[in-house]
Amino acid sequence: MEKKTLMKGNIAIAQGAIDGGLDAYFGYPITPQNEIPEFMSKKLPEINKVFIQAESELASINMVMGSAVAGFRSMTSSSSPGISLMQEGLSYLCGCELPCLIVNVQRGGPGLGNISGSQADYFQTVKGGGHGDYRLIAFAPDSVQEMYDFSLLSFELSEKYRNPVMILTDGVLGQMMEPIVVAIHEPRATSHEPRATKNWALDGCAGRKPRLIRSLLMVEGELEKHNWHLNRKYDDITKSEVKYEIVGHKDADVFIVAYGIVARICKSVIKDAGSKVGLIRPITLWPFPSEIISEIASPGKKKFLTVEMNLGQMVEDVKLSVNGKSPVEFLGRPGGGLVTAEEILQKLKGML
Amino acid sequence: MEKKTLMKGNIAIAQGAIDGGLDAYFGYPITPQNEIPEFMSKKLPEINKVFIQAESELASINMVMGSAVAGFRSMTSSSSPGISLMQEGLSYLCGCELPCLIVNVQRGGPGLGNISGSQADYFQTVKGGGHGDYRLIAFAPDSVQEMYDFSLLSFELSEKYRNPVMILTDGVLGQMMEPIVVAIHEPRATSHEPRATKNWALDGCAGRKPRLIRSLLMVEGELEKHNWHLNRKYDDITKSEVKYEIVGHKDADVFIVAYGIVARICKSVIKDAGSKVGLIRPITLWPFPSEIISEIASPGKKKFLTVEMNLGQMVEDVKLSVNGKSPVEFLGRPGGGLVTAEEILQKLKGML
Amino acid sequence: MEKKIIVCGSGGQGVLFSGVVLAWGAIEAGKHTTCFPSYGAEIRGGSSMSTVIISDEPIGSPVAESLDGLIALNELGYHRYIKKLLPGGIVVVNSSIAKVKADDRNFFEIPASELADRELGNILSANMVMIGYYIKKSGALSLDAVKSACEKLKYKKSAIELNKNALEVGYNYENKTSKGKRR
Amino acid sequence: MEKKIIVCGSGGQGVLFSGVVLAWGAIEAGKHTTCFPSYGAEIRGGSSMSTVIISDEPIGSPVAESLDGLIALNELGYHRYIKKLLPGGIVVVNSSIAKVKADDRNFFEIPASELADRELGNILSANMVMIGYYIKKSGALSLDAVKSACEKLKYKKSAIELNKNALEVGYNYENKTSKGKRR
Amino acid sequence: MKKIFSRPESLKDTPHLYCPGCGHGIIHRLIAEVIDELGVREKTIGVAPVGCAVFAYDYFNFDVTEAPHGRPPAVATGIKRVLPDRVVFTYQGDGDLAAIGTAEIIHAAARSENITVIFVNNANYGMTGGQMAPTTLIGQKTSTTPEGRIENCHGLPIKVSELMAIFDGVSYIERTAVNTPKNILRTRKAIKMAFEAQIENKGLSLVEILSQCPVEWHMNPVVSAKWLDEEMLKFYPLGVIKG
Amino acid sequence: MKKIFSRPESLKDTPHLYCPGCGHGIIHRLIAEVIDELGVREKTIGVAPVGCAVFAYDYFNFDVTEAPHGRPPAVATGIKRVLPDRVVFTYQGDGDLAAIGTAEIIHAAARSENITVIFVNNANYGMTGGQMAPTTLIGQKTSTTPEGRIENCHGLPIKVSELMAIFDGVSYIERTAVNTPKNILRTRKAIKMAFEAQIENKGLSLVEILSQCPVEWHMNPVVSAKWLDEEMLKFYPLGVIKG
Amino acid sequence: MDKQSKVVIDKNRCKGCALCIVYCPQSSLSLSRELNKLGVYPVEFTDDKSCTSCGFCYMVCPEVCIEVYK
Amino acid sequence: MDKQSKVVIDKNRCKGCALCIVYCPQSSLSLSRELNKLGVYPVEFTDDKSCTSCGFCYMVCPEVCIEVYK
Lengths: 352, 352, 183, 183, 243, 243, 70, 70
Ligand SMILES: Cc1ncc(C[n+]2csc(CCOP(=O)(O)OP(=O)(O)O)c2C)c(N)n1
Ligand SMILES: Cc1ncc(C[n+]2csc(CCOP(=O)(O)OP(=O)(O)O)c2C)c(N)n1
Ligand code: SF4
Ligand code: SF4
Ligand code: SF4
Ligand code: SF4
Ligand code: SF4
Ligand code: SF4
Ligand SMILES: [Mg+2]
Ligand SMILES: [Mg+2]
Fold this sequence. Notes:
Chain A has helices spanning about 10-20, 35-45, 55-70, 80-85, 85-95, 120-130, 145-160, 170-175, 190-195, 220-240, 260-275, 290-295, 315-320, 340-350; strands at about 5-10, 25, 50-55, 75-80, 100-105, 135-140, 165-170, 175-180, 210-215, 245, 255, 275-280, 285, 305-310, 330. By secondary structure, chain A is α/β, with parallel strands linked by helices.
């Protein structure tokens, strides 16, 4: 049996990133994710990596840009208001095609809101809170184990596509503890190996032509061309990187669609609800598992229920996937209210 | 005949806001909207109103918050990267229910991009680029006349609902000149009249209980309650404030859906395309004219073509409205490429 | 089997640590578990709590709407969470500090602070005394599981021993009260 | 009728003003019009241009893919935009500055800078001379409409007169070249 | 007997949610006393920060607005420019003012906004759990400087008052503390001077108040008051810096 | 005959897109000369601003990255912390550094980031069309101060060098100009001193360069060089401010 | 109000920080032996003979739960 | 390179800003009468007798289009 250890979600993210080869962390405190910078401030200096507490989230994301520009594995984390402040930076990172990891441990909004868990930054994450056409690869773990796993995975994925990865989680998952297996099965690349292969990174032009990283493309047509290039890349990611989980019988009558902390709760509901209810859990929010949803919806005799901790955001992507072939209902609670198993059961009863 | 005057889109926005009772403008330069602050810097001091060039877009939006807190008609304008920096502020403004006007004269993205017109901030505007569940009332003028009209209208609307209004336009509309009628048909409220009726505004507690403006709601359940309150308000707005224009025959086979500068171009295409093609032009992007689109789509024998200057954003709202009842196609150009009449005609030919 | 437990008290009483020990105990017992502590400005007022769920099956929400167990290190916490207790649920109260009236539930008092002070020479071990007593009364976990949990936590040897002893003190406490009886 | 015209030249030659005058002229003539100038860092290099569309119908895009008229105040602009000219389109070139070879289009040269200098005592009026000449050659607008446009622009009386005179100089310029002929 | 010391009118009768011994409660009371004394309660608008003192709006008995973290000077600018005859002040922690809000405070100073800034320097981020602030002392352990702040990694602490003193548009700056009765008395005086400067239209005024944060300093309140005396005052000398 | 003055290796043979007489071109060349002289071209990483000089990346013959407006010091921090032996510098205008980027430059200074900052003060926002900058002089007309900058509305201009000098973590600061051959020579020297400070690990170094912006000042280049001498130098005296 | 006392403490607001105790020049204050509603031992006024009504206790109290009479 | 000249100007890069002219201590430079490809009158080197190769012209030229020989 693999050795299990009790770990907090936030720490799992931090440990996962370190085990994934993190070179530099830059962040600014905000609840409910303070354990990440605090852990980093202790661990990174011990292994000769960089920890900087930035003066703001704006500075954090731009420091990430700097160390990503140099080809190093770079990361920041924050919670909703802080992530809003990073939107310009995220747009630049995507425009400049810089790999990095951003973690959003969501809290209740809008405004200062509160510090409970929430899922109200879904739109911001998957549609783009910043300006321009761009995409973040977005993971939504539903357990502390996945917090670790996806954090560890993110650098390789983000380097593969030269695109930022976001882990979109929330205060409940960030703060809760659970047994996980911290095991690095294959030897990880050290941070210097992938750096050598980054033929775009800036580290001084010794022995090669000078390099240039930019998103300003003023010559007529250049920016459009770059956008089409990005678009093809996003298509590739959509084809190859969709992750989801299906729980319950594929021929259930009602399919719940839920992610993250809500998906956990739905899983416990399904256990009780019997074989008539299934769950589709998007693991990547972008790229979204549209195909499988569309496939399941096709016969037309299914019903869908999207459950979220917000006023209805992912439900739009579910509807777009279902495209009218089946009814899609929504159950949600905003402002940090945690959806309960009873509420979901109640709603399901009305649908069965 | 009404007297026409030749006016630049950006100036029309500025003049409209002034004619709508603007008290205070705060902004930071960015192309292609610099005419707005420049005009304001000249005109506002002449009429004893406030113009401040802020040190950044962050400062701008928070100065707007300050003067809106005091109950004054307040405004800022910027272009895409600058608007990204305002996302935290917008979330606060919505959370605190503060009326104000924000103008986004979109340019090509992502990142620094270029200074051509673009429509790639649609998602940011209507889905929420900031954190939490919130909505901006979003106007998309398609002529210099509408730039003026909606700017003028925005304060009353935003005060009615205590919600920020955004004018989402682009570099082409902002920079182009066109004849418009600048005529204030009814006498406008002076800025002090509506202020007296704002029973929430802070101006010192003389003769009344102290007031408080905030979005932090830490007591359990408070924030959720507030969100449900906001949600009801958004529902009201959705019921009452949708604006759109239909051009061409209601029984056309193909309906183009387009807004802003692209809608203008589509209008000229429709003239040539004959009675088989119609245009639905959303004037409010949020609330979105879903009902009329759904209605038109209902017979099921229609086709839809969404045309945008981006990689496909509003098309999602069109699809959500159509809900599978008719096919929805997309034509778009990203990165500041202006869609041409020929491209649209070509695309239409394939669909007819 | 699924047990939802809240440990509550004031800052400095070792509430969060108690939750962690319970959860580790669950791991030792081969169960599923979650532990969800209060955090941030919630604890500014000085109260602290932790929700621990121990189950044979994977756990959904780590937040408990209703409780099988309440371990109250102070009075405030007792009053705050007692309404969530399910019929048949077990309450364990630190009677050294909390003067609460029992109702008709499985209500158990233990003068944990005094015991910790007297038997262990460390009043701060009251939390472990409470845990020991709780597992005895509830059967949620075995004493062995919780003791070996203590060893998993990276602490000094002496601290580990202290905690294990405190667990035993609680586990072996011959309570003189019975169900619902006042002390 | 729809005319798409580009006025181009270098910064300081009054290119944007020329566009505005044409568009105002269109308003005076009761037509629809748009005027779309170059802006921002585009003009950093020192070139400047303005697209004016004059039409009997509402106008779609203010940007012109193809042109009915090109008014080139300098050489660079001529070369940049001539390829957009439609067959039958009219080009007017300031021959005082731009030495370009005509091709088989409706190509008209006018030594506008010299004329402005000589006849009006102000070389900066070359732009209005060009506009006057262009409307004569193209018939896009009447001289009256453009002259009354000048009055709409809030300038000093003397400046208005100068502009109107310049328009007339251009309008009445007896060009010695004919279609396609070199000077 | 006559009541000679009691809760000022400008402070609501609401229990503070701060930790035991926290300086914020003292500072709130001092501000309220000064507002009362100047007779401007009904024309005062306060701007609360994001930080432990975000709850200031629950305690002050006059109009108060929230501002996003670090942006109180911008919000105050917006208010003061449209309502120049009101008394407008910001209340900001060292994270709020000296980290994320650096640009906003500096530009309010450069523009000589006629507002008063109450700057509470407790050498860490109280609300988020005691992380390093720009004002954290060298060697001071915080939750993000587990080995203590190290000059050649984190830089030296920022002396906000001295920095702000550079700006001609700032009329009054004093550094005070709330760890002893004497320092508290002086703080009250300084706050009054600062508000008076605003009322006399002299431009931005600022009082930097060294304040104990016992819980996040991991000290009991009495020890924290001593630590402030012994450690903070060495680096942050008290006194009028400008005015 | 021997070539004694010509294009340095660190400057690409690409025509500048700047306006005639613009100081940016001169400053680019000076930086390139110094980089050549110090022999560090192959280990230099430049951070370009958003401003007219965003195109610096087209001109320099070494690695250059863009940074969002105002954020070059944060981007440079990210680079330098992971590559401490490279030579990292930011090139920033007065809008970029002294307005939107205020917090980032101040905190880079406070942290004593070991980078070099080339700060080009042309008293306005060149790229966006000549709006007021934090450095615009009192009375100076810009496109957003049509009546000239007015002290009691816009505040006094910010003296960036003097402000930065407060920070112990800043090792070298000099204010120079590029309007005359003499000043240009001195600027070259200052840039060299600044880069040397970095190479010697002394912490942040900054050269504030007063630079003519003829087009947005609405002057011809020669007049603009004079105006700089007569008007800017009055408020911004040249010289070593720290070092 | 307790007519005897120069100093009145709202005991259920007191958080027992002890600042007033250490700064009272007359040692007129001490911690109570009874927990208050907040669960802490609040301060008691013990000695109205020596108390000079100097107000130091009021001044240092973060909870504003002291009133001083003269 | 013109073997005669101490100063060589890349005339199609010159923007005619005249900075080199005003700062040349020997008045060895002047504006040409022929437009260059940029449409401006570029600078010409007119006098290699008086020119001291001081390099001032190189130094002030924003276009880096001057080379100086000695
Ligand atoms: C944009 C944003 N970033 C971060 C936070 C989290 N946060 C809340 S308060 C605070 C700092 C508090 O420190 P300080 O300003 O010194 O106030 P104190 O609590 O010490 O009085 C931070 C970082 C936030 N709410 N918003
Ligand atoms: C976030 C953001 N805000 C505003 C702008 C627009 N902008 C581009 S450059 C610039 C200022 C340029 O001034 P300065 O930094 O002084 O450089 P200069 O052009 O004068 O050399 C501004 C405001 C932008 N690109 N991004
Ligand atoms: S954390 Fe510090 S500043 Fe915040 S309330 Fe507690 S003692 Fe006061
Ligand atoms: S606008 Fe000014 S700074 Fe920009 S290129 Fe022109 S002269 Fe230089
Ligand atoms: S008033 Fe003075 S002497 Fe009396 S109790 Fe308070 S501090 Fe002591
Ligand atoms: S200062 Fe106030 S809170 Fe502290 S012990 Fe005294 S009365 Fe209680
Ligand atoms: S080298 Fe000196 S003397 Fe010769 S042309 Fe240039 S500036 Fe004049
Ligand atoms: S300084 Fe350079 S660009 Fe200016 S005139 Fe002389 S050679 Fe031409
Ligand atoms: Mg603090
Ligand atoms: Mg500048």
